Amino acid sequence: MANHRENLLQLSYIRSVTLFGQCLAVIFAIYGLHADLNVWKISSTLGTLAFLNLITYARLFSPWPVTEPEFFTQLIAEMSLYGALLFHMGGATNPFIFLLLVPLIIASATLSKRYVWLIAVMIVAIYSSLLFYYEPILKLSNSHQHRIMELFDIHIVGMWINFLLTVLVITYFIVRMRQSMQQQQDKLEQEREKHIHDQQLLSLATMAAGTAHELGTPLSTMQVLLKELEHEHQHTPDLLEDLQLLYQQTEVCATRLKQMTQSVKEEHSTTQWLPATELIEATLEQLMVQRPDVSQTYTVMGLGEPPYLSCTTSLKQSLLNLINNAADANPKDLQIELDWDQQQTYFRIHDWGPGISLEQSDNLGKPFITTKGKGLGIGLFLTATTLARYDGDVRLYNHPEGGTLTEVTLPIRQKND
Fold first, then answer.
1. Looking at the DSSP assignment, which residues form a beta bridge with residue 297?
2. Is 70 in contact with 4 (CB distance < 8 Å)?
3. Mean predicted confidence (pLDDT) in 264-286
């Protein structure tokens, strides 16, 4: 679909340039060639064109969309006023007669076939009528004869200037129109990628919901059987200890499934705002409970009061996923930094693992792509998706000193945003 609002804006720019050029041409014809022109009629035509341009500017500030028939009407009005102006300035003998081609070329690039043919027929009719009906610029008389060669030279120069201006105007408009079309194409491509991304996310969410529902039954069965085995092996301390450990693990899994369901419900109803430092500290505390083998150094680099972030379960889980990924590469001596400026909050994780290859860096963030020998390859995909909901971003780099640098960027917002 053509962006007729942008096309109409460019047409108003061209109209302004044409007005300026025609005013200069009229001044030159009157004072340079001493032409006998009807100044009032020419001025009224130029004034009408200027008034049309002002109305067009005012219309572009309105919220209503610019339709194809409206843009066609604008071109018809433009072409008619050009014809009226040329009628008072020599008709087809005026070197600026080719100005009539500008609306046709614009229509050919922006409008459908039927509108282009209508404009083409009207331009031919206007040009043909100007061959016979016009007011001459210079009226020859017996007492005042102009030299034929001098008039011919002036006409040739005028044709050259007209050709140059037409080329400049048409080139400018076509380039801007092509840029507009390219922007629309890029937007459509982004929408297509977003649609594919949403479909992948929906598929993952559906599988996760189904898996969580199906895991409830086997976990309950395992807990019942483990309780029975504990009762039967009361007098076997070593086996009893293992059974109790297994029962605790199944209890953790069942609790985690319940928490996941509950957190999703709560996230849609409540939003808690916390300083970025508290959010990171809470995430690191959760990491230490889950993975006590990880050693890390946490540094706050930002100056002044820390910005507030929307503290949701999904955001904390996303940050935790990134730290876990870094710990999987190398759990020793993770370097974690928190920084911020006036617009952004930065969260960086530097691990001392093997780094990432060029092929892996091109595919990171896509579903089912993993840099580890194990895993499903959906952690980073879900993390990137969650951060995108907060207008954030995550990027992974090979650190110059070795290992991988993971950087999360989140915009700073007010609490009521």
1. 335
2. yes
3. 74
